[in-house]
Amino acid sequence: MSHGPKQPGAAVAPAGGKAPAQHGGFVVAVKQERGEGPRASDKGSHEEEPVKKRGWPKGKKRKKILPNGPKAPVTGYVRFLNERREQIRTRHPDLPFPEITKMLGAEWSKLQPTEKQRYLDEAEREKQQYIKELRAYQQSEAYKMCTEKIQEKKIKKEDSGSGLMNTLLNGHKGGDCDGFSTFDVPIFTEEFLDQNKAREAELRRLRKMNVAFEEQNAVLQRHTQNMSSARERLEQELALEERRTLALQQQLQAVRQALTASFASLPVPGAETP
């Protein structure tokens, strides 16, 4: 049986696979083999991608910190962590922070109920004290002024955002809004470039001032540390001198008592009666 020459467009069925189906003189490729290649490459690319760090949970609001307000209490578990963390860090100085937290978590889970209840009771007492202080703080003038300032900032932020949106949507000039008066300057003009140069010069000046203030702050911190160490040294010397003075007073009192006892039996000259 003779075989004709192979056509250049004919497809050969792969070993172990299905033969391609013929339809109207055209070869229909098997989709399964085409899909396996990209899946493997996609798997490798997914494995090479670094794990993204988790940020703040979406939809969860952060607690607002009240200036000059009472310090928020911590839970019993956090109190346990704060108490034991330094001990673990001293015992294992090379251990990273996540491992320390992991060890403390395991230790907390194995802690006796009586010991665990001690931390929980302390946290509850601190919580009740915080509630009392918070109620007293909410009745003070400082809290009222703080809430008024926060409300004013919120209103200003909303007004500035609405003004910017009106400017972008309605095509109004920046002069209509005090917060965006710089929009009056056309881009890439002499006035615009001069204004940018002036702002850059101002930024450079502020950076230099910031560096100078940081250096002064570092010098003041060193002076503060030196003064603190000198104060501690003087306090130690004062305590030592006080102890020496006390010892000398005791010795003086002992000498006085010895002299009084020695001269008690001796007659005083001129005190005898004829």
UniProtKB/TrEMBL annotation:
The HMG box domain, residue ranges: 70-138
Write out the GO biological process terms. Answer: chromatin organization; negative regulation of protein sumoylation; positive regulation of neuron differentiation; protein sumoylation; regulation of gene expression; skeletal muscle cell differentiation
Query: What broad class describes the main subcellular location of this protein?
Result: nucleus
Residues annotated as coiled-coil are 196-251
Provide the residue span(s) of the region labelled Disordered.
1-76
Say yes or no: keyword Chaperone present. no
InterPro entries membership: ChromReg_NeuronalGeneExpr (IPR051965), HMG_box_dom (IPR009071), HMG_box_dom_sf (IPR036910)
Q: Where is the composition biased (Basic residues)?
A: 53-65
- Gene Ontology molecular function terms on file: DNA binding
Q: Which domain of life is it from?
A: Eukaryota
Sorted alphabetically, the keyword list is: Cell cycle, Chromatin regulator, Chromosome, Coiled coil, DNA-binding, Isopeptide bond, Nucleus, Phosphoprotein, Transcription, Transcription regulation, Ubl conjugation
Q: For this UniProt entry, what's an example GO CC term?
A: chromosome
Residue stretches of biased makeup (Low complexity):
1-22
In the UniProt record, does the keyword Nucleus occur? yes
The places in or outside the cell where this protein is found are: Chromosome
**SUPFAM superfamilies in the cross-refs:** HMG-box
Please report a single Pfam family linked to this protein: HMG_box
Q: What task does this protein carry out?
A: Required for correct progression through G2 phase of the cell cycle and entry into mitosis. Required for RCOR1/CoREST mediated repression of neuronal specific gene promoters.
Q: What is this protein's name?
A: SWI/SNF-related matrix-associated actin-dependent regulator of chromatin subfamily E member 1-related
Which organism encodes this protein?
Myotis lucifugus
